[in-house]
Model the fold of this input.
Amino acid sequence: MHPFSILTLAIFVAGYITARWDLVTRLYELAIFAWDNGVISRIALGFVFLSFAFLIFLVPVQHIARSEADLVCFCFHLSPPSRRLGLIEENSTLGHRPGESLLGNSLDAEALSNRGALSDIVTSDLPGVLVGWRNSDLDVVVVAVLDHVDPKSVENALKTGILLRNAPHSVARIFELCGQASMHVLGLINTGPGVVPDPSWVQATTYSSKPLLRVTCTKASTIQTILFDRPNPLRMQYISLNPIALSLSGENRTLDAGSHESEVEDEKQEQKNKRKASQLMEKIKQHSVVQRPPSSKDKALVRIVNQINWAWELEHLLQKNVSLIGPRPKRTLSVSERVVEQATTMRDTAALWVWNMIIIYVFPIIRRAFIITLLAHRLAAEVLLLVLEWRLRPTSPALKDISATAQQVEIRLLQFCYWPMQYVKLRRRKNDWDSVTTSHPDYIRFYNSLWLVANDVIIGIALGSYIIENAEWVADMINMLLGKYTITALQSSISWLMGWPAGLKLNSELALFLGDLFLWVIDYWSSCAQTLEPFLPQIIWFIGFSSFAGASMPIALFSDLLSALTLHIYSFYLASARIFHWQLTILLSLFQLFRGKKYNVLRNRVDSCDYDLDQLLVGTILFTLLFFLLPTVIVFYLNFALARMGIILLKAAQGEFNIGIIIVLLFHIAHPRKGEYTMTSATVIGMLLTPYSQFLLSSAPCSANISRWEIGSANTTCPPVYYSVL
Amino acid sequence: MLTTAPYLRIRRPSPTAAEFTVSTLPPLTMPLRLSFYAIYALRGILSSLILLFLYATWAQSPYGSFPSPNPTSSLSIATALSAILASGPGVLATRLASQTPPRFAIAVCAVALYLLTRRMYTEESLLVLRGLGIQTSSSKGNILAGRATTRFIPTAKIQDVLVNEAFLGFEVRHYLVVVVDGEPDVVVVFPKLLPRADVVERVWRGVRECLGGRSTARNGAMLGGKG
Done:
C-alpha cells in the first residue's frame, strides 16, 4: 500500500471521527473513568515491571544475537548503502587537447554528486571508485561510489555485466533510456599518493571539515561540479526540465453545440492571441543577432536528466552486486545462522502453501465478482451519463446545463469511470523500472483526484450528519427565509411601486394593472409554496443524505432547490423584461420617425424618408404615449431584475464555494506533500568557489500549477482521454 | 534605511559560469550585520506581542470563553495559555484588548503583522551555466513565504536573450528578457528591481559571453555598438 493511500485513509478516518464527535466524547469519558478507578496506575506499574525485566534479560540476549548477526551483515553490505558521489560531469568545448586550451578553448568538467551524502562526505575518507556514465570525453555523470574495490576489476565487471546481475527488469532498458551503451569507471575518490590513474579519470577528494568536494582531472583545465540529491523513484521524485503537466491531456475540447455564444467568442479571441504570439516568435527567430546551432552538450541535457533520475535505482543495484567482484572473505554459516535460515525457509514454505491455496480457490471468485460489479457499475454510469447528455433538440440545453446537481453527478460519474482505466494504466508501470518517469504525472494525478474526492466525502459526512440531525430546524429556517424574502418583501416592494415610489410620478393605471397582475401571481405561488411546506423536512433530509456522496452534492442540490423555489421571480423577470424590451424597440423606431428618418432593412442603415402628415401625427402621438409610460415599466423591470440578480449572485457564491473554496483549501492543506512529490525544473543553487565552481541541484515545487489544474479540472473535468481510451 | 540603491555584483568562479546579482542589500559589515540582527529581534518581539494581543481579544470575545480549566489535569494547552494571559504582558494585552473595538484591532494587527514580516531588501539574480542553461531568481517579499522563486531555463529552450524597453509610469525602463522557445510569454530578468540601462547592458554582455563563448560575444558587442 502506498503511503499516500494510507494518508488518505487516515484522513478519512479522522474526518469520520470529526463527523461523529460523540465517539470521541465516549472515549474521553472512558479514559476519565479508567483514571478514576486507578487503571492507569496499575498499567504504569506493569509497564515499569516489564521494562525492568526487559533490561535484565532481553537486552543482553539481544546484544549477543546482534554480534552474531553483524558478521552476516558485514558479508553482504561491505559498503554503506547511501554513498557519496552521484554525478561528475566534465564538459568540454571543441578542443580536448590540453595544448589547445591555451588558445582559449577552455576545458571544463562538471561533477554532480549526491547531497544526501554530503554529511557522509564529511565523515568518510574511505577510498573508492566512481562509476557512472561518460557522455562525452570530459562530460561524466557519477552514479555510484564503490568502496574498497580495485578500479581494474570494476572496469572488467562493468564490461562483463557482473555488476548489473539480478536486475528486477531488463537491463537493456537502462542503457536505452540513459542513452549510453555502457557504464564506465570515471575516477577515484580519496586515493592515496601511490596510485597512478588514467589521464581521463577524475580524482575527487573529500574534506572532513568542510562540505566540499575537491575534483581534479589532468585533462581538464576548469571543472564544474554539480551536486544533487538522488531523486527517489519510490517516492515519485524525479527531475524534469519542464514543469509537470498535471492538466489532463488535450485541453482543446470540441465546442458543444449548446454552449454560449460568448464562450465561442472568447475561444476565438484566445486562439487569435495565440496565433499572434506564435507569429511574433517566428519574427524573433528571424531577427536573432547570433544564430547558434545547439551544441551536443545542449542536446545531452535530456539524457543527463534521465541519468540523474536513474541514479537511485542503479546505485542500489550496483551496491547490491559489489560483493561479487574482488576477493571477498567468504565465510561458512555458523550453527545459529543455519538454524535461523532453516526456520525462515520453513515459515516461507508454509506461507507460500497457504497463499497458493488462496490463489487457486478464493481468488478467481473474488476476481469474477469484482469484475461483474465493475461492469454493472460502468453500465449504470454510462446509462446515467446518456440521460444527462440527452437533449430534446440539438440546440436545446441538456439536463446537465440546467441543473447544478446533474452537473455534479456527471463529474462524479466521469471520475468513477476514469479511475479503473487509470489504475490499470498505473499497474502497468509495476512491470518496468521505477525510474521510468513517463507515468509519474498520471500517478500523481490519480491519487490527487482520489484524495480530493475522499476529502469531499469527509466534509460531506460532517455536513450531512449535521443537516440530518437538524432537518426540522433547517427546513423551518429555509421556509422562513423564503417567505420573508421571496414573498413578503416582493409583495411590499410591488405595492410600494403601485403608489408613487420615491416621488416618481408614474402612470397610476398602468402601475395598478401591472402590480395587481404580479400580486395575484405571487398569491397563487405562495399558496403553492404552502402546500409544499410539509414536505420540506423530507427534502432537506434527502439533501442531507445525499451529502454522503461529497459535500459538493448538497450544495448543488441546495442551488437547484433555490432555483425551483424562486421560479416565480424568474418568470416575473422574464415577463417584465419582455415588456420593457418590446416598448424600447418601438420607442426607438418611432424616434426615427420623429426625426423624419427610417431604418432601411435592405442596406442595413438609416435613410431619410418623407412621411405624410397623418403618419407623422399618429407616430408622434404614439411615441409620446409610450414615452410617458416608459418610467412605470422601467421601475417594474428594475425591481425584478434586482431580485433575479440577487438570486444569481447567491447561486454564484454557492458554486464558487463548491468549486473554489473547498478544493483550493484542501489543496493548500495537502500542498506540502505535493511539493515533495512533484519535482519540476532542475534548479541550480550557486555555491561558487574558485577555481572550480560547485553547484547544488534542488527541486522547485510547482504550487501554482497544481491549484490551477485542480480548479480547471473541477470546471471541465471531462477527461477527453476517457472516450479515446475506450 | 539600511538598504542602498540597487547595484550589480558579478561572480565568475570559472569561465563557464557566472552569477549576476542585483541587490539593494549593501555588503554586510559588522555594524550593519549587528543592526540587522537587532531589527530582526525587535520584529520578532513585536510580532509575538501582537499575537498575544490577538489572543487576548479572542479570549475576551464570547467565542473564546473557555470553561474553567479542570483542576485534575494540571498540564494542558489551556492552562498554559491562561498562564501566559496572567503574566505581565498578558495582563497589559488584556487591558488593551478590552479597551479597543475588536474589529478595528484585528484589522490593524493584520496590517502590522504583514508589515513586520516583510523582507527588508530585494535581491534578484541570474545564474548562467554554459551548456546547461540559465536560472533567474527573485527574492520573495515576505519572510514567511520562503527565500526566492527560481526558474531554470535549459539552453536548448533559450531562443534569445535581449534588452527591451517599456514605459513604466512616465519613464522608459530598459529590461532584460529571455525569450523561451514554445512559450507565449517572455521571462523578465530582475522583474522587481528593474535596474538601470547600464547595468542591464553589462549583464546582457556577460550573459552572451558566458553562453556563447568569446567569439560570439565579440560579434554581438559589435552589432550592439552599431545599433
About this structure: Chain B is about 45% helix and 25% strand. Residues 7-25+125-226 of chain B form one domain.
